[in-house]
TrEMBL record:
Protein name in the entry: Uncharacterized protein
Transmembrane segments: 23-44, 50-68, 80-99
Domain of life: Bacteria
Keywords, ordered alphabetically: Membrane, Transmembrane, Transmembrane helix
């Protein structure tokens, strides 16, 4: 559910051309990719079905491309922002899959 909400927020920011769009897209992308990565390595069992995981990984790859390129003239994401989005995405993923079980 958190991955879908992150995608919804990132899409809203993208629609409004908000300055936090690239950060929100990167957070979603890291969370979606880490969900499939952690699930495939056996760290936890993901509740996301396989077909939804494939769709979310595709959306995450597009989100990475949008957030790290200068596509919508919103400025590129900084290294601090990229690292922060990685940390936040990892925290969200681990919180909802390890600490709530």
């Amino acid at each position: 559910m958190a991955i879908s909400i992150e995608l919804l927020i990132a899409g809203y920011y993208l629609f409004k051309k908000h300055l936090k769009t690239n950060f929100a897209l990167a957070v979603f992308a890291f969370t979606a990719l880490l969900d499939s990565l952690f699930s495939s390595t056996g760290l936890f069992t993901s509740l996301v079905p396989l077909n939804a995981t494939i769709i979310l990984v595709g959306c995450a790859l597009v989100s990475f491309w949008l957030s790290f390129s200068h596509t919508f003239a919103l400025g590129r994401i900084s290294m601090v922002g990229a690292f922060g989005s990685f940390i936040l995405g990892t925290t969200v993923e681990l919180f909802f899959n390890l600490w709530t079980v």
